[in-house]
Amino acid sequence: MEEPLEQYLVLARSAKGKACESLILQATAHPRTFVFGELLELVRDKGVEGSYIRLLEVFAYGTYSDYTNERSTLPDVTPNHLKKLKMLTLATLAANSTLLEYGSLMESLEMSSVRELEDLIIESIYEGLVEGKIDHKHNALMVMSSFGRDVKQEKVPELIGKLKNYLSHIESVETFISEEIKSSKDSMETKNQKKERFEGARQETSKKLKAMLEDKTDSGLLRALKPGFLRPKQ
Fold first, then answer.
1. Are residues 5 and 27 in contact, defined by beta-carbon separation less than 8 angstroms?
2. Measuring CA to CA, which residue among 20, 49, 15 is closest to residue 36?
3. Which pTM value belongs to this model?
4. Which member of 57, 74, 93, 131 has the lowest number of beta carbons within 10 Å of its beta carbon?
5. Which helix (H) or strand (E) holds 131?
């Protein structure tokens, strides 16, 4: 767990009402807190005004556009809050795409310059929210992985279903690979058996030829000429 968040959780266990609301604003503005699910569960029944709960939900699993759509009904926030929310939104967008074009990002995050956007991307990478590479040539972010954010409670069954499907797929792949390995081993054993039979037949034939050449008698020559003499025994 993030160390700064742990401090807020400890305080929230004994706080109520306005004190919890203050903790929500502090936690969401802190530059090193990015997970808010546990804090959200702690303050729900602490007499906190609904707008603060909603603000915390936006930071837990929402996006910058969610905030702008509801700005008028939410508590006032600082520039640090907005920057944090934009970083979290970038993580969400990165989770759904391997290539994020600057034009789309600047629109989603309400940014007016490439420099401002790249500074946000670099800080998000530094904080571990996104792993990727800036492509200056194509003005895009090439995504490798992203930070896993909190999930809405109603989304949990859907997430579990996806995980089960993923595990089922993995098991199918493992079964296929095991069967391929077994088939390969069986094929190799068959090839080795054929090789051994061929080698045995070759040695038997070689012995017969050697015996024929060493036998100077007419009977030896007649035996060599007899049909099937050099044919290996099955």
1. yes
2. 20
3. 0.68
4. 131
5. strand 130-135
One pLDDT digit (tens) per residue for the chain, 234 residues: 467 788 899 999 998 999 999 999 999 999 889 999 999 999 998 999 999 999 999 999 999 999 999 999 999 999 999 999 999 999 999 999 999 999 999 999 999 999 999 999 999 999 999 999 999 989 999 999 998 887 776 665 665 666 677 677 777 787 878 777 877 776 776 777 777 776 776 677 667 666 656 655 555 544 544 444 445 555
Query: Side chain identity at 35, as an amino acid letter?
Result: V
Backbone torsions φ then ψ of 31, nearest 5 degrees: -70, -10
Order the strands of the 99-101 sheet from edge to edge: 99-101, 140-146, 130-135
Dihedrals φ, ψ of 14, to 5°?
A: -110, -5
CB of 142 closer than 8 Å to CB of 133: yes
For residues 66 and 143, give the distance between their C-alpha atoms in angstroms, rounded to a whole number: 23
Beta-carbon-side half-sphere exposure of residue 212 (alpha carbons within 13 Å) = 14
Token pair recorded at residue 103? 């034009």
Return the bridge partners of 135, or none: 140
Q: CA-CA distance, 43 to 48, in Å (whole number)?
A: 7
Residue indicated by tokens 């190799």: 188
DSSP H helices in the chain: 3-12, 17-29, 37-43, 50-61, 64-70, 79-95, 102-108, 114-126, 156-214, 218-225
